[in-house]
Design a protein that fits this description.
This protein is α+β, with helices and mostly antiparallel strands. It has six helices and 13 strands. The strands form four sheets. A seven-stranded mixed barrel has the order 1-2-10-13-12-11-9. It has a two-stranded antiparallel sheet with strand order 3-4. Strand 11 and strand 12 form a beta hairpin. Helix 3 runs parallel beside helix 5. The longest helix has 41 residues. It starts with 5 loop residues before the first strand and ends in a 5-residue tail after the last helix.
Length: 317
């Protein structure tokens, strides 16, 4: 388990639960540094003081707020930790709400809340069990990284998870982005529902939920490390070239989803326009097979007659 990022307490009513905040996620992305490509020397960003014109070590760097061009107020980290706020060292729960009432757009990074010490084990378990049984989430306030934040507490297995949340005024209005009035038929909506049903999963497990980009990037790095040419991109599959309307595309997608789940035999039904060449080819093949069979049956009596004649011929001594 990674080290604690922050220590404090969960507070709701008169109940206080000491906790440690631990990262709940990991970043497995391949990371790059900047290099001078001529000699592969590392390119670094150096921090300079513009007054003294010299590089400044990290222990001399702090936060400051520019009141005006001529006045900057320094703010120390310990002053931020000791802010005169009830949320400075506590995650203060202000309400419990149904989980479905929270817009996912407002939910940010997730962190595990770990019970700190034996004394916090019982109230921690009590809060987790109460959230679980009521199917509610807790909305809380806490001060972190120089600002007061809104948070969401929910249950994940045996742990309580804290998500940072955006304030309501931080969410942009999507009205101007939405398309205008669009005419949709009931058949199109029904077919889209069928597609959603066929593509519904019980969990996000399996090959469709693997980071293939990172895998491909690691293959490129490994090939170059060994002095080989990096693997190229796979050739794109050739399309049918047919232009399908929305309804046809939905029906074909449903059929394809059925085939992928093993619910149907064969490939999806093609559109009428796209399937015409295939049907014509099928008819041509059938006619050719019939003609071949007729020719074969016509030749068969001749072969039998020849065989009988040869049988009647006297054998030479």
């Amino acid at each position: 388990m990674p080290r604690s990022m922050w220590s404090g307490a969960i507070s709701f009513g008169l109940v206080t639960i000491p906790i440690d905040v631990v990262p709940a996620t990991e970043d497995h992305s391949v990371r790059f540094h900047q290099y001078h490509l001529e000699d592969m020397g590392r390119v670094r960003v150096r921090k300079y003081c513009e007054i003294e014109d010299r590089e400044v070590p990290q222990d001399e760097i702090g936060k400051g707020y520019e009141v005006s061009r001529d006045q900057v107020v320094a703010v120390l980290d310990e002053e931020l930790r000791d802010l005169p706020l009830p949320t400075a060292r506590a995650i203060e729960i202000v309400a419990f709400v149904p989980a479905r009432s929270i817009d996912p757009l407002r939910i940010g990074e997730g962190y595990y809340l770990q019970a700190s010490g034996k004394v916090s084990a019982k109230p921690y378990a009590l809060l987790r069990k109460a959230l679980e049984r009521t199917s509610k989430v807790a909305v809380a306030k806490f001060a972190w990284h120089g600002r007061e934040r809104l948070g969401l507490l929910r249950v994940r297995e045996d742990a309580i998870v804290l998500h940072s949340m955006r304030w309501p005024d931080e969410i942009r209005d999507p009205a101007e982005l939405a398309p205008g009035q669009v005419a949709l038929s009931e058949d199109e909506i029904t077919e889209a529902e069928h597609l959603i049903e066929r593509m519904t999963r019980d969990s996000l497990e399996g090959p469709d939920f693997v980071d293939h980009y990172t895998e491909a990037l690691e293959q490129v790095i490994e090939a170059k490390r060994e002095g080989h040419a990096p693997p190229g991109a796979p050739e794109a599959e050739a399309g049918t070239g047919a232009v399908l309307d929305l309804m046809t595309a939905l029906r074909d997608s449903v059929a394809q989803a059925k085939a992928n789940r093993g619910e149907g035999a064969g490939a999806p039904k093609a559109a009428k326009t796209a399937g015409a060449p295939a049907r014509a080819a099928k008819k041509t093949t059938a006619r050719a097979a019939k003609k071949t069979a007729e020719e074969a049956s016509a030749k068969a009596p001749a072969k039998k007659s020849t065989a009988r004649k040869a049988a009647r011929r006297p054998r030479s001594a």
